[in-house]
Amino acid sequence: MTDTLIEQADRLVAAGRVGDAAALLHAAGDSGDVDALFRLAAWQLIGDPLPRNVPAAYALLSRARMIGHVDAALMEIALTANGSAGPDDWTRALSLLTGAAGADPVAAEQLRLVRAMRLTTDGKPVTQPAPRPVSEQPHVRHFPALLTADECVHLARTADPLFEPASVLDPASGRRVRHPVRNADEAAIGPAREDLVVRAINLRIAAASGTDVAAGEPLTILRYGPGQQYRPHHDAIAGVANQRAWTMLVWLNDGYAGGETRFSPSGLTVKGRRGDGLLFRNLLPDGRPDPAAQHAGLPVTAGHKWMATRWIRQAPLDLWAS
């Protein structure tokens, strides 16, 4: 019956009757239908077909979690930890994850990984990641073993169902088109999917870079097959006031050939091992893009390369802003 009700709601939306669809799902949710609650929450997180309302979606997820919806529980945990619907609360998020782990193997695996980390009570690393200087111009720092092998696997698994060809918005047509300089597959782990393992990794990256975790864009996973590459580019974005000040790259696997990261102006070429991080500064002291930070991901010649990228802005940004 639930599937039929969801289908009815979707048909109403397709007919332009969004209000009727929402009323139908609200009525079902008030009767204890967890799938109806979850669909309403998803609509309000996405902002389509209902306006985006993250606090309202959070309340719906909480109701669905208390009835027993596993996916709602995991999403509520993510939003609790990153503060999307109020102050970030690692302690409560960890308590929710502990409760969910008893009945859900996905939550149990996340809890195992989190418990293996050395964290403070707010999810930050107990010790600061230690960098190794690589270059001053461009400003590049290497962080050996920033992530564990298990953490790398977790990021790859989290991203796997989200992958799509890298694309950009075509200003002429308003449509998504293939990325002109990157022909890999990409997956951004947004705030609704930022489980406690991903959140702790983002907090570790913030500690390593000396930045506010709220200044980071969603952690993006890139997958390159043979012949795929990221042509020379600069991570700074033209015309953006809150500029990308730093980039952290993390290698998620070994066992491939090619795929080095090369800073084009200097010829500096780097290839880390699984779990290593590479931090570089994109801006000059006056805030202008640093020409020396132009870089490329050279073509992979064999195997597949998996990378995590965290672009870090000068100031916090709202990841829910449309």
Description:
With 322 residues, this protein is of the alpha+beta class. It folds into two domains: 2-116, Serine Threonine Protein Phosphatase 5, Tetratricopeptide repeat, CATH 1.25.40.10; 132-313, Sandwich (Jelly Rolls). Helices cover 36% and strands 21% of the residues. It has nine helices and 16 strands. The strands form four sheets. Strands 1-2-13-9-16-7-6-3 form an eight-stranded antiparallel β-sheet, covered by helices on one side. A hairpin with a 6-residue loop joins strand 4 and strand 5 (176-178). Helix 2 (18-30) crosses helix 3. The mean pLDDT is 95.
Strand content: 15-25%
The order of strands across the largest sheet is: 1-2-13-9-16-7-6-3
Annotation field: number of helices = 9
**In percent, how helical is the residue content?**
25-40%
Main sheet: strands, sense, barrel: 8 strands, antiparallel
Report, as a whole number of angstroms, the end-to-end distance.
Answer: 34 Å
Structural class of the secondary elements?
A: alpha+beta
Task: Tell me how many strands there are.
Answer: 16
The CATH topology of the largest domain corresponds to Jelly Rolls
Whole-number mean pLDDT? 95
Work out the count of structural domains: 2
